[in-house]
Amino acid sequence: MTNTLLQRGRNHGFTLIELIVVMVVVGILAGIVALFIESPLQGYLAASRRAALVDAADTALLRMARDIQAALPNSLRVTQSGGVTYLEYLPVSDGGRYRAQQTGAGSGDILDFTSGGDASFDVLGPTVNATAGQYLVVYNLAVDASSDAWQGGNRRTVTSNGAVANLAFTATGSPLPLASPNNRFYLTGAPVTYACDPSGGTLYRINGYALQASQPTSFGGATANLLAGHVVACSISYDPGAAQRLGQLTLRLQLSQDGETVTLYREVVVNNDA
Predict the structure, then answer these.
(1) Cβ within 8 Å of residue 154, ≥6 positions away
(2) pLDDT tens digit string along 263-273?
(3) Which of 44, 94, 167, 214 is the most buried (most CB within 10 A)?
(4) By C-alpha distance, which of 96, 172, 88 is closest to 127?
(5) What is the pLDDT of residues 48-64, one digit of tens each?
(6) Which residue in 215, 273, 260 sits closest to 53, CA to CA?
């Protein structure tokens, strides 16, 4: 009786041959399933790579567009050297209207365009936030040395600090050459450059270097932040527009990685009304 029960228990197990057959069948089924999911999986990975590239390119172009729209009117300049494209501008930190005429009682500090010793003026309206070492720029037309902030004719160095209603600056001995029709002035910081290098696969934002009359292509002591990698092509062109009131900056950026390539294009309207 006992032996019969033991024999029946043993008959419920699996033989080695049965296990091998099951493993072979499972392997065949796994191979068939793999054939069906391989293509969708590869498509998913390719789409993920493209999405990452699009996101990187779009972020870079959005940052460039945002910066350029806050640039000093007529301060954009573009050059190429050694296969690298450079876009430079002066960022505006604040601005307002200067006093052009005294009050009826004969008071008020005007911005004097006839005196090279003038070194301050009243700010009309809200105060401006000034930092010593910033640049004061008035009526930047960029048509000649006297009206170009890069060359310095209409640029002065600010000496005021903090929120001020009377802005002080360094007198140069020569008066500012041109009054603004709308009595506007701008406060700008140090220049900023975007350098796009397809051979190196990079797009950098560079700041912290000295302002120069001619557009630089080397930046000793500057801070360079990587804005995008995997760059294989880029194009930057700038048209200041008729009468230099509204310019157009055209940006094209192409990124490529692991066989995936994306190209993004953006146009930026630049307000050059000084």
Answers:
(1) 137, 138, 139, 140, 146, 147, 148, 176, 177, 178
(2) 999 999 998 88
(3) 167
(4) 96
(5) 888 999 999 999 999 99
(6) 260
